[in-house]
Amino acid sequence: QVQLVESGGGLVQAGGSLRLSCAASGSIFRLNVMAWYRQVPGKQRELVAVITSGGITNYADSVKGRFTISRDNVKNTVYLQMNSLKPEDTAVYYCKIDTYSTYWGQGTQVTVSS
Length: 114
What we know:
By secondary structure, the protein is mainly β.
């Protein structure tokens, strides 16, 4: 079993920055993939950014150049640095890890005011 604890969400003005963190604990294979997704009411959850345990990253086109995903493999923690935030970035952000199985965090609200 794996537990994911997210933190760092909140309210920010357009153009501002936030940093999300997600700490994983439990039975985690050293080769794994961690990712951030987001979801707004009435829409499907969408991939924001993904990072492998080897450091390979990929981003949604809508966040390229503004968001940066990183990780600390010793702490089993993934981060999402979000800069130049826009109102359309407003969503609940979820952390996910693919290891022996797939696990999701509880979500953290990010609200960007115009």
